[in-house]
Specification:
Pfam families: PglD_N. This protein is mainly beta and 207 residues long. 11% of the residues lie in helices and 31% in strands. The protein folds into 2 domains: 80 residues, 3-Layer(aba) Sandwich (Rossmann fold), CATH 3.40.50; 116 residues, 3 Solenoid (UDP N-Acetylglucosamine Acyltransferase, domain 1).
Length: 207
């Protein structure tokens, strides 16, 4: 079987590649729909061309794109793809954690018992997820984010760098929590919330 195709050639792809290599995986190259990136190198790996190459039989790939909506769009465009998950060996992930397809857990992250992580989720560098949390599909928690126990992040929610969530709170689908904010009560879907404590400031445009 060939190496893993990394989808996306931006900065996030560098961290995904580093995680794959640390986990003992082989990287074949990168794919990106921006022609200006074709033929360039990322950490010594070539940008091979467009995403059309995902249609090759027996391909394995991982979405290395930080934008939650784009990950959703691409995963739905290629429903038969064997999406690979990546867990950095310098993270701590309890054996009871359930990890979905295409999700990534980066270096320094801690994921505690009985947490459920959906598909194409990003648990970024040094983030912590305590017991019995649920991170639904396409969630992204940024570096240094801290979730207490029994937090639920609904589909597509994004928590900015250094943010935190108190025990048992729920963050609605496609909500955004600003950097350094602290969520102490439930947040509605499609909101942007900032501050300590985090309060909704505006509604995001829905697709």
């Amino acid at each position: 079987m060939s190496g893993i195709l990394v989808v996306g050639a931006g900065g996030h792809a560098k961290v995904v590649i580093a995680t794959l290599l640390a986990a003992g995986e082989t990287v074949e190259g990168l794919l990106d729909d921006q022609p200006s990136r074709w033929g360039s190198m990322v950490l010594g790996y070539p940008v091979l061309g467009s995403l059309e190459q995902l249609e090759k039989p027996d391909s394995r790939a991982i979405l290395a794109i930080g934008n939650n909506r784009v990950r959703q769009t691409l995963s739905e465009r290629y429903p038969e793809m064997a999406w690979v998950s990546a867990v950095h060996p310098n993270s701590v992930v309890h054996s009871s954690v359930r990890l979905g397809a295409g999700s990534v857990i980066f270096a320094g992250a801690v994921v505690q018992p009985d947490t459920t992580i959906g598909n194409h989720v990003i648990v970024n560098t040094a983030a912590t997820v305590d017991h019995d949390c649920v991170l639904e599909d396409y969630v992204h928690i940024a570096p240094g984010t801290h979730l207490a126990g029994q937090v639920r992040l609904e589909q597509g929610a994004f928590l900015g760098i250094g943010s935190a969530a108190a025990p048992g709170v729920r963050v609605g689908a496609w909500a955004t929590v600003g950097a350094g904010s602290v969520v102490i009560r439930d947040l509605p879907p499609h909101c942007v919330a900032v501050g300590v404590p985090a309060r909704p400031r505006q509604a995001k445009d829905q697709p």
